[in-house]
Each structure stands twice: as C-alpha cells, then as structure tokens.
Amino acid sequence: MTRHIIRRLLYTIPVMLVVSLLVFGILHVAPGDPAAMLGGEDARPEDVAAIRAKYGLDQPLYIQYGIWIGNALRSDLGRSIVTRRPVLQEVVTRFPYTLELAVAALVAAVVAGMSVGVISATRQYSAIDHGTMVLALLGVSTPVFWLGLMLIFAFSVELRWFPTGGVGSWRHLVLPALTLGAHSMAIIARMTRSSMLEVIRQDYIRTARAKGLVERVVVLRHGLLNALIPVVTVVGLQFGYLLGGAVITETVFSRRGLGRLLIDSINSRDFPTVQGTLMLLAGSFVLVNLLVDTLYAYLDPRIRYE
Amino acid sequence: MKSRSAVVVLLTAVLLFFTSYSSVPSTPTEARAAQPGQPFRIIDSLEPNSLDPATGTGPFGTVQYALYDTLVGHNEKMEPTPGLATSWQVADDKVTWTFRLRRGVKFHDGTEFNAEAVKFTYERILDPATGAGRRSVYTVIKKVEAPDPQTVRIITDGPFPDLPFLLLDRTSFILSPTAVRKLGNAEFGLRPVGTGPFKFVEWVPNDHITLDANPDYWQRRPRSSRVIYKVVTETAARTAALRAGEADMVMNISPNDQNVLRRDSNIVLVQKDSLTQVQAEMRQTMPPFSDRRVRQAMNYAVDRTAIIKDVMMGLGRIADSPGPPGVWGSVRLTPYEYNPEKAKQLLAEAGYRSGFEGNLFYVSGRWGGDDQVAQALQAYWAAVGIKIQIRKADMAGLDDMLSRDPDTMAGWIAFPVRTSTYLDYHLWRLYETRAARMKGYQRSGYSNPRVDEYLVKARSTFDLNERKRHYEAAQKLIWEDAAFVWLFTRQNLLGVRKGTSGYEFLPTGMVRLHNAGK
Question: Is the pLDDT of residue A109 over 80?
C-alpha cells in the first residue's frame, strides 16, 4: 500500500511537467502581449520593447521556459509582471481561501446530497423522491452565477443575515459555499440514490432485515456503507471541480482566492501568475485523486493495490 | 489493513491541516470597524495593479487622488488651479516654464517636498527603465531643473501650451524620492508615499486597501479619519453591497441597476457627463473604409437616440463633435442624423450597393451596456447591407489587434472607449497622421493633411483665441470626413448612501475623498 502511494506520488512528477509545458505553451500561443498591456494606450514601440526586455519576455520561448522551470524547482515562481509581487506569495496567501470555500462547499454537498439520496432511495417513487429529484435536477442546471446573485439579494440585501461578499468570519462563507456546492449536492444526491437503490435489492440486505435489525442500521450500515464506492468517486471528482469552479463564485462574492487571481492574471497576460496558479490547482487535483483512490481500498477491502 | 488505516489517517490529517490553516488569517477589518470614528467605505470595480502613478493602469484613480497631489491642481471641470505649485509662468521663448512651489509641505514619510522631488518624479517617468505607460506623452518635456528648493524650471521640446494640463494628470502625481529609492520601483507601487490627504496603511490584494487621514496635510484636515477601499468586479454585486449598507459609496454603477437604486430611499444616485467617448474606429487605409462615403453611410445608418435611450437607459450624451464635450476648445456640431436611406445611397455611390462584410472588435464587459451597443451597431449596419461580425476579446487581445498595421486590417473596426482630459491630447493621438499610424493603440490610419496643419498650429501658439479657431477648424474637417462612427459620451453613475457628503465626483469617473464623510 505504502509502495503504491509512493509510486503514485512519483507519477505526479511527469504529470506536473506535462501540465507546466501545456500551461506555458497555451499562454504564449494566445494573442496578447503583457508588455503592450502594461505600456497602455500611449506607449510607443520602443517603450513596449523596453518593458518586454525588463521582464525577459524578449527571450526565445524555450529559454523562458527553462528559466521558469529551473526557478520553480527552487520554489521561486518569479514575480507577477503586473503587480510585481512574488507569485509564490500571491498564490500561497490565496490558496487557503479557495480551499476553505471548496471544503465548505463539499461538506455541504456531501451532507445534504447523501441525506437526500438515501431518503429518496428508501422511499422510491414517493412524492418526496420525485420532489427531491426535481430539486436535484434544478441544482445541476442552475448557473452558479445566477444562484449566487439570488442568494445575495435574498439573504444579504433583504434579510441582511450574511455579508454580500469578502472573506473573514464563517458568515462570509455560508452563501458562497451554498452557491458553489449546489451543483455537487445535486450530483451526489442522484448518485447516492441510484447506488442505494441497487444495494437495497441485494440478498444481504434481506438477510439483515431477516435478522431483525432495526431499519436505521439496515439502511445506514448495511446499505449506505456498501453504496459508498461510486459516491466516493463522484465526491472526489467533485472536489477537483469545486477547486476549479471557485472562479465564478469568487468573482460573484468578491472573495480573495485563486480563482479570481487566475481570471485577473489571464486577462492581463500575467504569465508567471497564471502558471503558478494553474500548477497549484493541477497539483491539488492530482493529490485529491490519490486520496480518493486510497479511500476505495479502505471502504472496500476487496480492492487491493499491488 | 493497519498500514492502510494509517495512510487514510495521514491523508485526512493533511487535509484537515489545510482546512484549519485556512481559517487562521482571520478578519482584521472587522476588528478595526469597532474603532471610534467609522471608516469611509468605498467600492470600485477594478483591482489596481500598482498604486505607482507612472505604471498603474485602470480606473482606480480614487485611491491615488487620496494619496498624492499634483504640481498643478484642478477643479471639477478639470481646469488647472494651484496645487503643489502656487503659481507658474512661461517665458517669452515659449519653452521655459517656471513653477513656484508651496512651502512647508511634507511627504507622509517626513521627506520635505521641494524642487528636487518634482525633478525626481518627472525624470523617473521619462526614464525608460521605469516603464511608465504615458512616457511618450511626457517626452515633450526636454529638461527639468531645480535652481532652488522652491522653484522648478521645465523646458519643453518646442512650444507646448498644454503643459499645465499634462501636469494635472494623475500620472504626474509627485512621489517621495526617499521612499522610491528605499523601496525600489516595484515595491513603491505596493507601499506608496505621497503628500496627499490620506496616508497608505495596508493593501490586502483582492480584498481591500486601507488609508488613514494625514494629520499634517497642507490643506484642511481630511474629514474621515480612515478610508477603506474595496474592489467588487461584478456590477450586480456592487449594487447589492450598496443596498445592504456595506459601502458608503459605490463607483461604476451599471445603467441596468439604476431603477432599483432610484427606488431605494437610502441611496442617492449622482449622474455626470464623463470625458469618455464611445466610438467605432475603422481601419481606413484600405477599402472599404478608405472611402469617405462609406464612413459617412455608417454614421447615418445608426440611430444614436434609440441606443442612448434603450440600451444606455439615458446615460449618454449624443456625439456632436470629435472632441469630448466639457473640455476646453471642443466645438458643438450637428450630430449625424439617423437616415438609413441616405446611408444606402452613399454606399451605392461608393460602389457597395450590395454591401460588404467586416469585423467589429472589442473588449466585452468593460462598461455597462457595451455588448448591447455592439449588437445594436451590428443590426443597424446590417439594415443597410453591411454585414459585421462581432468579435469579443479581452484587453490583451484588443491590444494585440490595435497594434497591427492598419494596412493588413481591411474591413476591421475597433470599438474602444477614449477618455481624454484635454483637447490636444484627444485630437492629436486619434487624428494626427503620424499618431494615427503609430504602433500601439491608435492605429486607425486616418489621415488628412489639413487637419494635421491645424493641430500643429494650435499646439504652437499660446493665444487662446487663436488656438480655439484652429481646433474648431480641425474638428469640423474630422467631422465631415466621418473619420469614425461617433456614438455618444458616456455618463457616469455614482451611488452613495444617504447622508454621505463632501465628495468631488470628477468627469474622469473618479472621486476626490478629501472632504468626504457621513
């Protein structure tokens, strides 16, 4: 098991290298010159050239990439072209806010999604089942953007329960977490329901009931626990989606975070910042996948990694 | 099994560590709000990249106005007034300007404000290593001298009557030389030091900037003891924050939100003419736009009144001159009427009876209503046979398009906004032949030697009446040439909570906060 994890961790190295090449390549192929942007509308060609030289943007691409990857290995991600702050500092100070948001959204999604899923499955074709599944469908199809604004109008402007945006206390986290988590909540609910429906038809559930176990134990210990594997896969994938999907939520709620940093830096062609942010997001994604794979083996002892 | 549990526990612990770490940087702003004297809270639409006046870009000058002063001040009409200089005059040679400086002014770091600081600031803008965006405009300054601490002499490259206008611009704020030398250019933009009414306290990126009143300010002490400046990029979220009472002032209100806000009795909306022109700029060194009749037809094809009323919700003033209304020397001409028949006729005369195809290139979401205005243009032009494809870009993409040679861009139209604080700057950069072909932002390729002649004449005399005559002639020629499709001058909307007063809402869309309070 330990060997498996070490091997998987080693695999992340080529993965991250390929990611870095892709990120670097795509950014430099996209039209738009950061030097021209910094120069502004009155800059002459010589002014733009001076800015380009100042930030090493006049070097051939492979040299720029070599310098960047070399520095990155020594944990120096360079400085933002736009703000001149060190990229590592920009990324590290924002990551906790995005993680906080993604975790809160995931917790909300898992708790609500699984509960709804289990309830629907145990009352298949009832009014509750139909009602919650329609809600789930709505959750999947509602744009994050719209949902966020509606929550702001209801709970911030009218009721004044929560602030409209920003970061700080738990109160700043409630609306963004619900907004971001709604989609995952719906998916987890549907997944839990179908997985549960499959499991509760198994013989061992009938056996459990025949043993005279109370329904709660039958459903939760014998049913839900066995229905978890596909759900965990979905949860794992959703976490990656939540980390990346924080972009829109962070914009609507004006939260500090990697998503906003990414959007701002893409718009201004701030190469070092985009690269640093994407590398961190990609790294998190890879680690989360590893965590999920490890969880399989824990949940289902039949799964072994050799 | 044992090792498996251990791994799970370990990974969970890692995750938990990150989660708990994320709640550590708790809320400094809330702790401060409890202090006596409520801070003045203002929300803007764009995060500054730097507070360095030379390299900062974007419409966030409100913070800079609070931090710095210019040598030449200005009033709400952007006319020059005494600032850090109490008086100035130009010598008979028309190129030597002498500025007398205010005494007893200190920078926030205690450095004395004097002629050396002025010389340092301007020479820094001119130094290519600084990377100042508007350096090319400042190259009209040949030399800055500091004969004594209270006198600055500026020698211009040829007569330049608009020097006071250049020196009141927010790119020319005077900086503390001590701070720049100590911090370096990059760091100075993050921890700025000026002479302004407020002192820099902290900047938490993507969250807020805090400023405190400067008790030693050379004018009256600022009314608010603290200013907290936040950035909310999403327009609907800005409106929500104002309605929820989370801000005393919100800038860049979207026209779409004005009805909701006007119904709210706690909010006052201030509507004001801006210096920002909305216009479609054709690349015109090649057909079809090299033909004046085509450009005129495109002007006649558009119903500006309808666009202002229905798309801009009334927040616009119909274009009646190449010069922005509200700046000195700008003339009022007859707006192009909405006349699709005349447009079709002109197109037929120019040999485009069955129309032609083209592209409209712009940055979506830069100002409220831009997408709808672009679509309206597309529809109006389609009605006379001109099929335009809309191409959206981000700033970097537009920049890239605008820096391409107009000779390679037949049929392309750029749709930017142009903000100018004085007429020479506006007309010169857009309509003077060399400027209109210069690599960079203004490559429409427009050229009319007679316009060039008037612009040069207007630049080289100090006689106001004579200058005005030259500018009038130039603007009339440009208007008849239908150089661009001018649509309207934008009006800015500022939202404030009831009881807020003392702020100065400038036509640039920025606010001076010196006397603002509630």
Answer: yes
